[in-house]
């Protein structure tokens, strides 16, 4: 399969997600979405440093950085630690397993298309070539959905509390002149660090639900 498969249809999980976010945006009057709090730690940072040397994280890092490059007008994907946020979402949050698979499959489809067009993987292309390639895949339904999924996570990374992986030192809030709600969880008092609370790994929720069913 590829981004240009004529049989592709927007999956139910994405339709529900887009519908929910549209409702939240209308209700809140902002572009941010409600994100489930997630865990970030030194161990996770080290794990990601190892993983991003190869795909799928190598290419995802390059795509996110292209979609939101650093500029004089504001922070880029690396500044807001978008890859770290996405990694934490995929690693910990109870998001639909099909969404995780779609994010990763998109990397293979993108590099396959890049090879067919330019005989190179996406990460080694120059800025103009990356732009042209992403514009081409955005013309397909699957490609458009994949890019929009990553853009949504860029928004979340920029607007979530720093203790959960993205938005270090509130860089996204400062750029948008946004005053976050208080109190914010300090290190040692984040929800997953409270004794007796949230001891069940989020990773196991979907599996456990299937067993009960």
Shape: globular
Alpha-carbon Rg, integer: 18 Å
| Main beta-sheet strand count, sense and barrel state | none
Q: Count the E strands.
A: 0
Number of domains: 1
- Secondary-structure element string: HHHHHHHHH
Low-confidence stretches: 23-38, 197-213
| Beta-strand residue percentage | under 5%
Mean pLDDT: 78
Instruction: Give the class from helix and strand content and strand pairing.
Output: mainly alpha
Report how far apart the termini are: 31 Å
Total count of helical runs of at least 4 residues: 9
Q: Report the helical percentage.
A: 40-55%
Describe the structure.
The protein is mainly alpha-helical and 213 residues long. The chain has one domain (39-212). Helices cover 54% and strands 0% of the residues. The chain is built from 9 helices and no strands. It has helices at residues 12-28, 42-51, 57-67, 82-92, 97-118, 127-137, 141-159, 171-176, 205-212. Helix 4 crosses helix 7. The longest helix is centred in the middle third of the chain and has 22 residues, at 97-118. The radius of gyration is 18 Å and the shape is globular. The two termini are 31 Å apart. InterPro entries: Gluconate_2DH_su3, TAT_signal. This is Gluconate 2-dehydrogenase subunit 3 family protein.
Spell out the key features of this protein.
disordered C terminus; TAT_signal; 9 helices; globular; mainly alpha
Quick take:
The chain has helices spanning 12-28, 42-51, 57-67, 82-92, 97-118, 127-137, 141-159, 171-176, 205-212. The chain has 213 residues and is mainly α.
